[in-house]
Specification:
This protein has 360 residues and is of the alpha+beta class. It contains eight helices and twelve strands.
């Protein structure tokens, strides 16, 4: 295994403690899967959601079981997850200054709880807040192995074109008003904060004060991790309230009819960021379908204006201390929590050499 990185700063005892917390986190992760399986039948890839509702009926017993498991998760978030990030922030304050990307954040908005929307929609650019308009979304394929079609998600086609000279990715380049935009927990937190949402504002102000950092430092490696942890707390608290509003006697699905012809979009917030589905129906069949994942926004390649995606932008200018073990690059990439299933990877069954890569 690789030798310890030259920049390892945690004292041995503290390093051992945080390593144990990692193992504890795996158990908590298993607990979240059990919790969600109560209502979604299985996790991951729950199968309990259908058009118009869900397949699983709720019961008093399930609600009690759900809350018991949720409380264990909330204790871990409050007493382990968030404190660990505070610890890392004190030993690695420079990680609030690396991995800075565009100061442009996007959120479709999501988790409508009836009385409030947990995550507001919006666009935050250089500290200025704007309302979100889905009609401004376009996809570029200048650097992608796809044929040029309509940039509108409703009309776009996904057709491979493997001989494009400038292409280097199977990810398209989603753009909002022609610009790259970062999505995810950090984007949601900053937009909620800018819109004055109490929970986001209160939590974030405490973090900024405790770690003695500025608002602009959040566009960074540790800033993204902190946002993810604070969001876990916000979501877990909202879940505890929402599950108590479920009525066992209420129907779990609303009957619907597929229209003869129609088109529409479904925009929501997934854990990694803004997720959109676009569909066109003709003769009661799907004529066209497109999806733009959070990882497509963040990991997108250069567009027709030569602008890299947010992740590529965050890697620009990174100083590498140990070229044999370039953890700085790894830390920046992982701070975005990229999805491994959102891009196609090229392999050859004929033994042809495609390239050489170092796994770090």
């Amino acid at each position: 295994s690789p030798s310890p990185h030259k920049n390892c700063r945690l004292p041995p005892q503290l390093n051992e403690e945080l390593s144990k917390h990692y193992l504890q986190a795996l158990e908590i992760r298993r607990g979240t899967h059990k919790l969600l399986a109560l209502l979604g039948e299985k996790m991951p890839h729950n199968i309990g959601i259908v058009a118009g509702g869900v397949t699983e009926k709720v019961s008093e017993d399930k609600i009690t079981n759900f809350l018991w498991r949720l409380n264990q998760i909330r204790e871990f978030i409050d007493n382990v997850y968030i404190p660990n990030l505070f610890t890392l922030g004190k030993y690695y304050p420079d990680c609030f200054n690396i991995g800075r990307s565009y100061q442009r954040f996007l959120a479709y908005g999501g988790l409508n709880l009836g009385e409030e929307i947990l995550f507001e929609s919006g666009v935050l650019e250089e500290g200025k807040l704007f309302e979100f308009n889905s009609g401004e979304i376009r996809e570029k394929v200048t650097s992608s192995w796809y044929r040029e079609t309509s940039p509108s998600p409703l009309a776009a086609q996904t057709e491979p074109s493997l001989n494009k000279e400038k292409a280097y990715s199977f990810i398209k380049s989603p753009r909002y008003q022609g610009k790259p935009s970062e999505v995810g927990p950090l984007a949601r937190l900053l937009i909620n904060y800018s819109k004055g949402k109490y929970k986001a504002k209160d939590l974030l102000n405490k973090v900024l004060s405790e770690l003695n950092i500025e608002f602009n430092n959040l566009s960074s490696v540790l800033g993204r991790h902190l946002a993810r942890a604070l969001e876990a707390k916000i979501v877990a608290e909202a879940m505890a309230e929402a599950v108590l509003k479920l009525e066992p006697a209420e129907p779990v699905i609303t009957p619907h009819q597929i229209p003869e012809s129609s088109q529409g979009e479904g925009l929501t917030e997934a854990p990694r960021g803004s997720l959109g589905h676009w569909v066109v129906i003709a003769d009661k069949k799907i004529k066209n379908y497109q999806v733009i994942t959070p990882a497509a926004w963040n990991a997108s390649p250069k567009d027709d204006q030569e602008n890299p995606g947010p992740l590529e932008k965050a890697l620009e200018g990174i100083k590498i201390e140990d070229k044999e073990n370039p953890l700085e690059i790894v830390r920046v990439v992982r701070s975005f929590d990229p999805c491994l299933a959102c891009a196609v990877h090229l392999i050859s069954f004929k033994g042809r050499k495609i390239g050489e890569f170092k796994v770090v």
